Each structure stands twice: as structure tokens, then as C-alpha cells.
Amino acid sequence: MTKRPYDLPHMSALISFEAAARHVSFKVAAAELNVTPAAISHQVKALEQELRCLLFRRYHRGVELTETGAYLLVSLQRSFEGMNDALDQLRARTGRASVTIRATTAVSSFWLTPRLGQFWKSHGHISVAQVVSDTDLGQSDCDLSVHYGDMSKDSGICHAIFNDHIMALGSPRFARQHGVKNVADLALLPLIHLDAPKTGWTDWQDWCGVLGYSGPLKNTHFVNNYVIALQAAQDDMGAVLGWNGLTKDIVASGRLVQLLPDTVASPVDFYVKMHAQASDRAKLVFDWLTIGKEVNRAGFAEGPYS
Description:
21% strand, rod-shaped, three-stranded antiparallel beta sheet, single chain, alpha/beta
């Protein structure tokens, strides 16, 4: 049965005893706690009376722990350590942002950040921190995380954010210079390859294969970051594969254009995962990102897809 707070000795008595027992000295304990030795002695005596046992043997030149006192000291130190651990965790959680979201550089740059800007317009009281990393997305040191993969193989609460399709993109100048008419034409041009095998992102060989071309390709430029790949394409360095959900704003601005009308369905989805330790505020962000929670006067949902 759990003890109620008023069934336990006063915390001041326990703290005084722990300091005295740890130092085996009332005087040193008093200096540590900034009280008098008499105050320590009084607290310890009160505790002994309440427990009906001796915790110290008192001698002319000092004190010595009894067996009962030694047992209580070990128990208290374990309890204090547990309390400190709990407080440290609470401080760490309070000190960080209300909600943390882990995402890759590309997802953060092209999808998440713009939507968080919309989110803060109506939820400015909720702070959100992005943990941007292109590796170790499976770590659970966050409330939410955005993934590109087979959602059915993941655990926890997951929700697809878009079923994407992939297209060949290039700068307007690149498109004018080369006039691509089919996949075979594209294979002869400079291509920007995303050299990130562990991400599971479709590469040029796979993309062309789906469209019926299995011949050689130009391996012109290799980068290990999708943001850099898109920037290289905007700088006329070559064609790049574009996931519509990530690049539609760049295409809409005219910085990149579709080189062929052909597209390939993404074999896996982009999805948001909510981790077990997610707070109510994190759940609100999750709902907003996945299904939208704002409703306009006409009754239509407004949110990530508006």
C-alpha cells in the first residue's frame, strides 16, 4: 500500500538525516545545509522518535551509524537519486520546445517549414522545434518524425501525407537547350544523381526502367543531399528527379520545369509518425499536418493541403 504524504516523516528530517549519515557528522551536515549542528541533532532525534529506533550512536567525539541508520541511508539515497532523475527529465522536457519534429533536410525545407508557418498563424502559443537530419530517422528522441518508406512496416501511429509521383525536372534554360522528347533523349543528357542509397529514394535507373528504357545513362553529377541536387538543377547543371510533393512550389515558381510529361508513381509514401511519448500538443500538430483542423466559414478544411 502506498503511503500518503502525511504518513511519512517530514522531508526536512529526512534531508538532515541523509546529510548527517553521509558525512557521519552533525557539524559537517549543518555546514552543508547552512543550519546549526543543534538543528541537525533536533531533526535526527525527531526522526528517531517517530521511527522508534536509534539511527546514530552518539559518542563524546562524534557519531556512528547504527545498522538501521545505514539501511535508511541507502534507501534514502536511492529515493533521492530517483527523484533527481525524474526532475532532470522534467526540466529537459520543459526546457526544450513544446513539440519536436525530426525530418530530412529536403522534407524540412520544401514541405514541413512552409506548413509550420501556416500552423503558427493560428497556434502561436505552441513552439515547435525541427530536428533536421538525413540519417537515423528511426530514433525516438522526438514527438513526431517524417519518413519516406513503407508505412505498413512501421509501428505506432502513422499517417501518409501524400502519395507522390516522380518526374524529370530541369531549369528552363536546360529545357530550351535540349528539347527532350522521350526518355531515350533524356538518357543522353547530364543527369544529377542522388547518392544516398539508404534513403530508399528512386534513382534514375529505376525511373527510366519503369518507363521502358533500360539503356545506359550519363552519370554526370552525384550529390548526397536532395536540396543540393535541386539547386544544381536550377543552376543548369543537369536534369533531376522531382517528387511532386516536395518540388511543386519550385515548379510553380518556374525555377524548374517538367522535361517530359511522363511521371512514375512513388513506390512508397511520405508519412508522419507520432511517437509514444508525444504530448497533447504534439498530437495537435500531428492532426494538423495530416488531416487539417482549421475550418473556414464555407465549412472546408484548411490546413496542410489548402
